[in-house]
């Protein structure tokens, strides 16, 4: 067993590294973890409300939900390497157009729509497909490592963006961040996804024949698909939606600016820890049980942050729990889709669930912004998020044992 595990990672480390950087500088990491830094600037410079600013994420969510499944068919037809290597530069260029914002909300939203459309080939759908095809015995850990890229990006980009804003202005910060998918992620994906045979790595077109699991039609009719949707919609609203607002949430708790910067950076560290810990746990334990525990911890985080005043140590605990929960979300979803629905139509089924997830994750920030604009506090909506997470923690257990058919594919 140990030799097999070592061989699996030895043969696939290039895929893991390329996927790690792809998720770090892909969608949704680039726009999702920078909008929180830019939002106060846009609000001050253009007089926009937070609900309007985070409305860009709603457009992005619509693009992922409506067009995402189409991109999934492109991945199956042309391969992850080609699709990702084209989409990453397009994502970077689209993001750079935000630097041209001049107070026109229409222009601002067009930039977000471009980010959503042209970045669809650089989402976790692409990179998890590669990893799920290449790994079996340590699939959860490999997914955790790859998907930790977003957490690493969150940890680095917030202080980096703040530094760039202070030295060169917010437009320079946007241009520098937009260059990262072009000059870092794209070359690594071209290199890493070319290192192993296409049929093993899942980097090229792969026929569905011989792959275990359901067809797309069967998956969409199965109870597993709809249970997963029922879990990840509240999870996306309750975990992903607060993250772009985290600086303002902490500011509303009367914490100092230096404390806010420290705490916001902790989200990335905790997310990385969540990715790795979640990957290790689902390889060893029943994944729905792992999900229940993690979602319950997320509910506790939301309850802490919903208080009117929170001490720095308690805020640290809440941020670590929230980051940990957010770190598990994507790899847990990818693992559960592969286990319960199989790999036969993975790109299509995962892309659809991912689109549903993104709707909550990207519409949620606007709801948070609206709640704050209306009430001056995040307390009520954070308490609602805690309830949603508790409901999701109970629902995920209804998935039941892993289907026998899928187990054959993982043996």
Automatic annotation (TrEMBL):
Give the matching CDD domains: MFS_YcxA_like
Please give the start and end residues of each transmembrane region: 12-42, 48-71, 78-97, 109-128, 140-157, 169-193, 224-240, 260-278, 285-306, 312-338, 350-372, 378-399
Q: Under the GO molecular function aspect, what terms does this record hold?
A: transmembrane transporter activity
Q: Which domain of life is it from?
A: Bacteria
Q: Which PROSITE patterns match?
A: MFS
Q: Which keywords fit this entry according to its UniProt record?
A: Membrane, Transmembrane, Transmembrane helix
Name this polypeptide is given? MFS transporter
The protein's matches in PANTHER family, at most eight in alphabetical order, are given as:
EG:103B4.3 PROTEIN-RELATED, MONOCARBOXYLATE TRANSPORTER
Q: InterPro entries per the record? A: MFS (IPR011701), MFS_dom (IPR020846), MFS_trans_sf (IPR036259), Proton-linked_MCT (IPR050327)
- All copies of domain Major facilitator superfamily (MFS) profile, residue ranges: 17-409
């Amino acid at each position: 067993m140990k030799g097999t595990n070592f061989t699996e990672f030895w043969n696939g480390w290039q895929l893991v590294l390329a996927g790690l950087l792809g998720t770090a500088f892909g969608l949704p990491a680039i726009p999702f973890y920078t909008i929180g830094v830019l939002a106060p600037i846009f609000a001050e410079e253009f007089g926009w409300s937070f609900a309007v600013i985070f409305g860009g994420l709603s457009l992005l969510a619509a693009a992922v939900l409506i067009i995402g499944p189409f991109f999934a068919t492109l991945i199956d037809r042309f391969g992850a390497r080609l699709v990702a290597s084209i989409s990453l530069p397009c994502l970077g260029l689209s993001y750079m157009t935000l630097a041209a914002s001049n107070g026109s909300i229409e222009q601002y939203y067009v930039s977000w729509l471009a980010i959503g459309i042209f970045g669809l080939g650089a989402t976790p759908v692409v990179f998890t497909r590669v990893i799920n095809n290449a790994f079996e015995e340590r699939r959860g850990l490999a997914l955790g490592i790859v998907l930790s890229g977003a957490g690493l990006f969150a940890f680095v980009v917030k202080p980096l963006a703040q530094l760039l804003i202070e030295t060169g202005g917010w437009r320079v910060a946007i241009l520098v961040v937009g260059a990262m998918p072009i000059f870092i992620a794209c070359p690594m994906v071209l290199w890493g996804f070319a290192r192993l045979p296409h049929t093993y790595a899942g980097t090229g077109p792969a026929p569905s024949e011989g792959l275990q699991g359901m067809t797309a039609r069967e998956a969409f009719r199965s109870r597993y698909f709809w249970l997963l949707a029922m879990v990840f919609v509240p999870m996306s609203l309750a975990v992903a939606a607060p993250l772009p607002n985290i600086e303002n949430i902490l500011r509303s708790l009367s914490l100092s600016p230096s404390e806010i910067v420290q705490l916001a950076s902790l989200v990335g560290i905790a997310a990385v820890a969540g990715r790795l810990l979640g990957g290790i746990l689902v390889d060893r334990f029943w994944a729905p049980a792992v999900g229940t525990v993690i979602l319950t911890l997320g509910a506790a985080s939301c309850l802490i942050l919903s208080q009117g005043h929170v001490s720095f140590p308690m805020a640290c605990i809440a941020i670590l729990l929230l980051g940990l929960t957010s770190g598990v979300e994507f790899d847990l979803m990818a693992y559960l889709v592969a286990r319960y629905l199989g790999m036969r139509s993975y790109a299509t089924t995962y892309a659809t669930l991912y689109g549903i997830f993104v709707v909550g994750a990207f519409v949620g920030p606007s709801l948070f912004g609206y709640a704050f604009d209306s009430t001056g506090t995040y307390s009520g909506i954070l308490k609602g998020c805690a309830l949603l997470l508790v409901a999701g923690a109970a629902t995920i257990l209804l998935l039941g044992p892993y289907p026998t058919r899928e187990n054959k594919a993982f043996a």
